[in-house]
Write a structure and sequence with these properties.
This protein has 103 residues and is mostly helical. Helix content is 34%, strand content 0%. It is built from 4 helices and no strands. The longest helix has 13 residues.
């Protein structure tokens, strides 16, 4: 599915509907899941569409939870039961701190 998603994003870029070097947050209209009074990691503003395609957005799944595979942990944090929607996984991911500088 990653390669299909990448091809789809690149086709959108060819049609000038997505800019690869634009912040990914320009294309996400989902609010992050954050604890009360917490703020989103400011490095999220530096993550581009290209970083996401190249797996250089700033995450290391060996160091932290991968929200795409750890369904029960994400569901627990959201206070819901699986199956999770893409929006729920995205909210969870956007609320996580980035582990290293994007790129």
């Amino acid at each position: 599915s990653k390669s299909i998603t990448a091809v789809s994003v690149l086709q959108l870029a060819e049609k000038k509907l997505v800019k690869l070097d634009a912040p990914v947050l320009d294309y996400i209209a989902v609010k992050p899941l954050l604890p009360p009074k917490a703020k989103q990691d400011p490095r999220w503003k530096a993550v581009t569409v290209r970083h996401c395609l190249q797996h250089t957005a700033g995450f290391d799944r060996d160091q932290s939870l991968d929200p795409t595979t750890e369904t029960w942990e994400v569901a627990k944090a959201l206070g819901v039961s699986p199956p999770l929607t893409p929006v729920q996984v995205t909210r969870y991911a956007l609320g996580r701190p980035i582990e290293y500088e994007p790129g």
